[in-house]
Amino acid sequence: MHLQLITLQGVRLDTEMYELIAPTESGEIAVFPGHEHLVTLATPGALAVRHNKTDRDTQLEYFAISGGVIEIAPDTIRVLVDEADHGEDIIEAESRAALERALKLRDEAPDQVEREKAAQMIDRHQVRLKVAELQRRHRR
Amino acid sequence: MPSTQALKGRIRSVKNTKQITKAMQLVAASKMRKAQEATKLSAPYTEAAREMLTALSYREAVKDHPLFKKRPVKTRLMIVIASDKGLAGAYNSNIIKLYAQQLTEDDKAGIKNATITVGRRASQFVARLKDTEVLGSYEELPDRPDGRELRTILNSAKGLFEEGKVDAVDIIYTEFINSVNQKAVVNRVLPAGFEPTHEPKGPRDIVYEPTTKRVLDGIAYRLVGAQIFQALLDARASEHSMRMMAMKNATDNAGDLIDDLTLAMNKARQGAITQELAEISGGVEALNE
To answer: Left if phi > 0, otherwise alpha if psi is -120 to 50, otherwise beta: which for B119?
Structure first.
């Protein structure tokens, strides 16, 4: 089935694939060809794409996504998210350092606005870190 | 007539200025190309969001959604997008002129207003005003803005609108038409406008999870976000093209000035030589007598 991953920075992925694993508000879902028509909300997390039916888990392609909307039809999927970072572009050590900085920022935040900003950063970096770890585990 | 020495000094200084403006022109040109490409990137996102909303509009009354509902405007929020740096021709003054005009109109109509500024030039202008409430100032946005800056602006605008603290949100920015044509415009962001796209393909029996209402919230939020994001990208591309044009004009003017000054200097030098010769021959004449 056809998958389009659309972000504010352009179309990140426009390809044929076999299975999509996506984080949604009602839990993680896996979508295979022939799925019923469904529109659901994506939560920040790891999006995984299996390109061919015979691909193993180690060959999954990962993206760290922010929240968005997923539109599923039997033969097409459109994922509309604000941001999507390719798993291979994320450097684990950098994400870890950024997460620590964000945690520190939250603890030192003088007001509610700053705390919220820091919380947003923490969410973002946690997702990125998770994707980086998945990517590393599967590369072994 | 100024001395040859003074003219030489001026030519040198104008040449230096020309070198600087030329360099700035080249920098702006390369930034403009990048920014110009970026303005097209968010189009698929907006298109997809609108299509999803159209499909959804058969199930849920989109017009009654809080983000789409029109109400009488008593207070409005303006998001003003200008640049951090000057030397971009009329870029900032056009935006500020339009903003000031909007303020006067609101004043006449008895509408209260609040402002969020993007860019130092806008915040400096707004800081001197008394009759508008400044809710936030964003400066030093990166050249390729990503979702993060957008989300803070979007969330505060949406929050204020939903709480009923403002009844409309407008965005004032420079629309990028092409590299020689840019226009300062006012666009209404909230309440959001909704024009259905073509009849959606596929059946109408779509499942919405968790609920149609929540999905509508999600799509509406993204559609509004995309509009603000597009404005940020357009403003960026306009800024760089206007700076490029301004610097090109400055470089051309410096070239003309150098030509004029060189002519004046040559005249002055020739004049000095002629005068010296006249004095010498005059002296020789006097001795011969």
So the answer is: left
